[in-house]
């Protein structure tokens, strides 16, 4: 569906029959960079302090290495790590990481010094370990790899392998996500069938799963990587619990999301106290160093619901995205899509919808929840938040009517929805405003074949980097690397979407003229407002906007404009609901 076609506002029915009205599509994204990655399928992406893009995933023969610590593939699939200087259009380093078995990198994060940390899965006895917490793969009573272990590796800014370790017990263990805090401590989450997973200062020290029922786990490594801050199981009794996402807030508290079939999954101060049916998503927040549960809640309806990714916003609230078949997901009145889109008879065999939810920082309520999708299969795989608090979601869709905005980079579905399993469709990228959850933009991205969006990383300025897999020779390319589309190889992609967020070049309050003057360096085409210290100060009758000079002049005394107190005051420019970076106002 095209949101806001022919108008500057959209009107959509919500689940309760009410209507949500607001400005839609305030930003027009452009494709600033896009390239194929031959022989690789990237699963996750991160942005470094130098602006470089870091990737990990799985790669086979045909993947091109550069300044590599491991230049050859050693198994059927190896993990890979890659750093791209997008501004200069060059690969800084690209390397395999693996042994004789199968190895997959599934998550990557970068610290303030430019060190990259990747986590994933390996069943290789000869996985390259260095300065390891656990130097050997966990084996079962028969001496086999027990299904495989998780791994964590650290790569320095030049591409050298600093450390790497197995993490697991005598059964199958897999790391599904990883993040790093300001001190260099690495937090991982995943699932395990091992009753002997290393646990330290654990909130839940005992494995409660079974032969066919894994338990979730969360663990934090010290900055040196050779010891654990804590490690704990997380789940209910004798049922399946899987962690899929982890994030660390500025206060070093830890959010973990995934899904559970356990009616007795531990809940604390929940927005939803009881499991809805089948599998429900869960959202759990731990205190720093895993010392306590801050909150823990179910999130779901009567069918299966799976949380795939988590991110904190600047205020400490928790965003979660995932997949659902529930017709009664607890959506909010301002939802982009308040009702299940997957069909008239939802059930176990119905198409999946994506979903996005915002959980309050204390876990007591869902501040936002919406379906994302159309009549076909839709998967929301990853989410990220920029410094303004705007939220980004990517995944894949086989719905020709997935909701896109009039300013979409690609407003027409390009894929083929004829296959089963993952839809042979397009990537979607949807960005919602922090102010009111209105879609700033929503777009398809893809060619005539299959595309999947596995990961998104967001620069502070709102540039979104999307990674995944494509089978489309016609996938759009901009300033590509030397890699070309080759049908006999897996073909990954990296795409960078930019959007013209407004920004403030200067802001001055002149007390003699009783006026606040703001000079913008972005677009002022649209409804313009000004906030000072979080208070809106510019009703239209008091603001003069010069779009040609990019200037906003707001008349009013210091008290009226909330700049009469001592110290600096934070000014925000709001254009069609899109918020600029904060700017300190100068008094004179």
Report the major sheet. Answer: 9 strands, mixed
Estimate the global geometry from the Cα principal axes: globular
Mean pLDDT: 88
Structural class per helix/strand content?
A: mainly beta
Could you describe the 3D structure shown?
This protein is mostly beta strands and 588 residues long. The chain is built from no helices and 39 strands. Strands 31, 32, 33, 34, 35, 36, 37, 38 and 39 form a nine-stranded mixed beta sheet that branches. Strands 3-30-29-28 form a four-stranded antiparallel beta sheet, with no helix packed on it. The chain has a four-stranded antiparallel beta sheet with strand order 4-5-6-7, with no helix packed on it. Strand 12 (173-180) and strand 13 form a beta hairpin. The model is unreliable at 5-23 (pLDDT under 50).
Write the layout of secondary structure elements.
Blueprint: E1 9-13, E2 19-23, E3 30-38, E4 40-47, E5 53-59, E6 78-85, E7 90-97, E8 103-110, E9 116-122, E10 149-155, E11 161-167, E12 173-180, E13 186-192, E14 215-221, E15 228-234, E16 241-248, E17 254-260, E18 280-286, E19 293-299, E20 305-312, E21 318-324, E22 353-359, E23 366-372, E24 378-385, E25 391-397, E26 426-432, E27 439-445, E28 451-458, E29 464-470, E30 491-498, E31 504-510, E32 515-520, E33 528-532, E34 535-536, E35 543-546, E36 551-555, E37 569-575, E38 578-579, E39 583-587
Parallel strand pairs: 31-39
Antiparallel strand pairs: 1-2, 3-30, 4-5, 5-6, 6-7, 8-9, 9-10, 10-11, 12-13, 13-14, 14-15, 16-17, 17-18, 18-19, 20-21, 21-22, 22-23, 24-25, 25-26, 26-27, 28-29, 29-30, 31-32, 32-36, 33-34, 33-37, 35-36, 37-38, 37-39
């Amino acid at each position: 569906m095209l949101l806001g076609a022919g108008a500057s506002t959209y009107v959509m029915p919500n689940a309760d029959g009410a209507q949500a009205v607001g400005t839609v599509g305030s930003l027009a994204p452009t494709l600033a960079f896009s390239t194929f990655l031959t022989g690789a399928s990237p699963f996750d992406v991160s942005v470094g302090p130098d602006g470089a893009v870091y990737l990990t995933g799985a790669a086979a023969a045909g993947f091109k290495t550069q300044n590599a610590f491991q230049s050859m593939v050693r198994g059927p699939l190896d993990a890979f790590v890659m750093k791209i200087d997008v501004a200069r259009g060059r690969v800084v380093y690209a390397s395999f990481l693996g042994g004789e078995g199968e190895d997959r990198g599934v998550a990557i994060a970068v610290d303030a010094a430019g060190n990259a940390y990747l986590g994933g899965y390996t069943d290789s006895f000869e996985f390259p370990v260095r300065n390891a917490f656990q130097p050997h793969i966990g084996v079962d009573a028969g001496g086999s790899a027990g299904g495989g272990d998780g791994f964590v590796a650290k790569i320095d800014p030049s591409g050298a392998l600093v450390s790497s370790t197995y993490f697991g017990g005598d059964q199958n263990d897999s790391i599904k996500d990883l993040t790093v805090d300001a001190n260099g401590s690495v937090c991982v989450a995943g699932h395990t069938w091992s009753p002997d997973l290393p646990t330290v200062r654990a909130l839940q020290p005992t494995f409660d799963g079974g032969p066919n029922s894994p338990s979730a786990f969360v663990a934090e490594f010290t900055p040196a990587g050779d010891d654990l801050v804590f490690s704990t199981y997380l789940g209910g009794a004798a049922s399946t619990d899987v962690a899929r996402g982890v994030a660390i807030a500025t206060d070093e508290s830890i959010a973990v999301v995934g899904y559970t079939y356990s009616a007795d999954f531990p809940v604390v101060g929940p927005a939803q106290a009881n499991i809805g049916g089948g599998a429900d998503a869960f959202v759990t927040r731990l205190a720093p160093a895993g010392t306590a549960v801050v909150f823990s809640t179910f999130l779901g309806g009567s069918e299966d619901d799976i949380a795939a990714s988590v991110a904190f916003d600047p205020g400490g609230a928790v965003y979660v995205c995932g997949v659902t078949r529930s017709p009664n997901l607890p959506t909010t009145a301002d939802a982009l899509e308040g009702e299940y889109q997957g069909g008239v008879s939802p059930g176990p065999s119905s198409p999946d919808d994506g979903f996005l939810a915002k959980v309050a920082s204390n876990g007591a309520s869902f501040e936002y929840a919406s379906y994302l999708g159309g009549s076909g299969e839709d998967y929301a795989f990853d989410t990220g938040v920029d410094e303004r608090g705007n939220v980004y979601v990517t995944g894949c869709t086989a719905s020709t009517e997935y909701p896109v905005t009039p300013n979409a980079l690609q407003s027409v579905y390009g894929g083929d929805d004829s296959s089963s399993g993952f839809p042979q469709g397009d990537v979607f990228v949807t960005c919602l405003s922090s102010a009111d959850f209105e879609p700033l933009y929503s777009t398809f991205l893809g060619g005539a074949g299959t595309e999947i969006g596995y990961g998104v990383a967001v620069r502070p300025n709102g540039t979104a980097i999307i990674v995944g897999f494509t089978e489309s020779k016609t996938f759009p390319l901009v300033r590509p690397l030397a890699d070309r589309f080759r049908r006999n190889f897996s073909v990954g992609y990296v795409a960078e979407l930019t959007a013209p967020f407004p920004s403030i070049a200067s802001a001055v309050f002149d007390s003699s003229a009783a006026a606040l003057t703001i000079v913008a360096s972005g677009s002022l085409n649209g409804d313009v407002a000004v906030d000072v210290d979080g208070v809106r100060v510019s009703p239209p009758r008091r603001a003069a906007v010069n779009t040609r000079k990019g200037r906003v002049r707001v008349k009013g005394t210091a008290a009226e404009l909330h700049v009469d107190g001592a110290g600096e005051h934070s000014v925000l420019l709001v254009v069609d609901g899109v918020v600029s970076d904060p700017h300190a106002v100068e008094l004179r």
